[in-house]
Amino acid sequence: MSKTLFDKVWDAHVVKRIKNGPDVLFIDRHLVHEVTSPVAFLGLQNRKLDVLFPDKTFATADHNTPTKNQNLPIKDPLSAKQLQTLKLNSKKHKIPFWGLGHKKNGIVHVIGPENGITLPGATIVCGDSHTSTHGAFGAIAFGIGTSEVEMVLTTQCVLQPKPKKMRIIINGKLNNYVTPKDVALYIISKISTSGATGHFVEYSGDVFEAMSMEGRMTVCNLSIEMGARGGMIAPDKKTINYIRDREFTPKGDVFLKLLKYWNSLKTEKDATFDREYVFEGDKIEPMITYGTNPGMGTSISDGIPHYKDLNVNKETFLKSLNYMNYSEGDDLIGKKIDYVFLGSCTNGRIEDFRQFANFVKGKKKCPSVTAWLVPGSHNVHNEIVNEGIFDILTNSGFEIREPGCSACLAMNEDKIPSGKYVVSTSNRNFEGRQGPGARTLLASPIVAAAAAITGKITDPRIF
């Protein structure tokens, strides 16, 4: 039987199949951070167990980290304790730990790829739902719970039922000002936040082939927001060129041997999927969300739809609009905004800062807008400086912060105040996600840049 990309990688990692149950899946790379790991490590301590393969596990501090004055003691006692606990657990079990101040520190789903930890054909897990990001390299990557984190630490395996398979094909060419973030938000708006539930998604077609690796990571990152278990894109020359010569990428003869395997990771011609969607790239416009889930998105020029035109629950739809203080039929363009957030594991990479900087160059930040520009890692921060992006942004009135998850999830000092509107390049717009009462509009770095300059929702194409 012809196999999909997903089948090839999954089947190669099955240690044992349990009849009428899940598969025992071997895990190549395990990423941990300070939020979901403490209880897992406590489980090891209580059972007097060690980490089986410390060299396959990598730890970083990201969720609780401040993005200003990282060289000072952390003010929040819970955050400080979680970070210290991860440091001690990593030392005890001889796990590489990249804490605050370390040159490799950053958001877990940013540092994995940029250090060569993420490889094609690998299985990768983390106690974080957006682990799907790593699927951009042709890896099977998904988030796991705390008990599963403990399982992987002790056995390097996890119990998982094999998901169904979905393929999303987008052919053609994207229009100007349309980014990978817009592509992902467009897909979610079409199939809903539950449209891919129970599936692993393969993205294919002209649009994804033309994307940079950063763009592919953004799309795969948002797979979880359509209900998918994860998303992946077949590795190609761009993939190989990206990972070549990175610190943890295999070298020499091992690399050449793996290269032959990686080149085989393609869906075979006659392979079948449980579900398929096909879209046209030139139909996608700059997108923005207007509600309280990522599926409530629209082309920025279209305005807010009426519930009758959508297959949605009326009460839930209107409740969401009430939280946002919006109404059906409202034009979004011209709506006042208060904050702009550029960053997160969705859009905190160098390409995102290039897009933002290219748009604001020669312009000035609107005085009424508070903008938080947060690199995904120290490496990204260094690139911002080396490429002259730092100067462009500071000349336009913006401040570059230190790496971390920041305002993506309000688990640190960066919280959007209640009632304020933020155009955010992150991944979730749930009620309170970016701070109690915060009102989030998800968008691309370019749409965020236009809002930062004008102080309102603005179609970037008018520039």
Give a structural overview.
- This protein is of the alpha/beta class and 463 residues long.
- It folds into two domains: 5-262, 2-Layer Sandwich (Aconitase, domain 3); 288-462, Aconitase, domain 3.
- Helices cover 32% and strands 16% of the residues.
- The protein has helices at residues 5-12, 38-46, 77-92, 108-114, 146-155, 180-191, 206-210, 213-221, 237-243, 252-262, 314-324, 344-347, 350-360, 378-386, 389-395, 445-454; strands at 14-17, 23-26, 29-32, 57-60, 97-98, 123-126, 140-143, 157-160, 164-171, 199-204, 230-232, 275-280, 287-289, 297-299, 339-342, 370-373, 421-424, 439-442.
- The strands form five sheets. It has a five-stranded parallel sheet with strand order 5-4-3-6-7. Strands 11-10-9-12 form a four-stranded parallel sheet.
- β9 (164-171), α6 (180-191) and β10 form a beta-alpha-beta unit.
- α6 packs parallel to α8 (213-221).
- The longest helix has 16 residues, at 77-92.
- It is globular.
- 52% of the residues are buried.
Keywords:
single chain, 463 residues, alpha/beta, Aconitase, domain 3, 2 domains, five-stranded parallel beta sheet, four-stranded parallel beta sheet, 16% strand
Name the strands of the widest sheet in spatial order: 5-4-3-6-7
Biggest sheet: strands, sense, closure?
Answer: 5 strands, parallel
Shape: globular
Uncertain segments are none
By DSSP, the count of extended strands is 18
The CATH superfamily of the largest domain bears the name Aconitase, domain 3
Percent range of helical residues: 25-40%
CATH architecture type of the largest domain: 2-Layer Sandwich
Q: What's the CATH C level of the largest domain?
A: Alpha Beta
- What is the overall pLDDT average? 97
Number of helices: 16
Distance between the termini: 52 Å
Radius of gyration: 21 Å
| SS content category | alpha/beta
